[in-house]
Amino acid sequence: METSFAIEEPITHQRCTESLSSVEDAIYVIGGKWKLKIIIALQEHGNIRFNELQRIVTGISARVLSNELKDLELNGFVKRIVHSEQTPVVVEYISTDYSKTLKPVIIALSEWGRTHKNNIREDVFENK
């Protein structure tokens, strides 16, 4: 069986600094306890009203959800649609196409999290 290894460029100080800066920017925008949960819920459920979203993202308060939605809208991940022609006025939230660019990242994080949890379980049980 042949094993091939990709030869990587040596990591320079500049490249390392740029990578750290990029990761810091990403974590700033999507980090925290709720943002990815909200993005995932919107991607899975499509157009969704505030109260329905709050029920799906269990444990989040209305105030925190409102603030997180404003941040996500500011960063282009969420679009707020107001249906003012209806009475009462209906407000829905949807994920943007830009938000969907996170899908590979979310899948990778999910797989890594599952693997990590299994590794921790195995390690815990092996050490007993």
Automatic annotation (TrEMBL):
SUPFAM superfamilies: Winged helix' DNA-binding domain. Keywords: DNA-binding, Transcription, Transcription regulation. The keyword Transcription applies. It holds the Pfam family HxlR. It comes from the Bacteria. PANTHER family: TRANSCRIPTIONAL REGULATOR, MARR FAMILY. This is Helix-turn-helix transcriptional regulator. Residues 16-121 form the HTH hxlR-type domain. The lineage of its organism: Bacteria, Pseudomonadati, Bacteroidota, Flavobacteriia, Flavobacteriales. InterPro entries: HTH_HxlR, WH-like_DNA-bd_sf, WH_DNA-bd_sf.
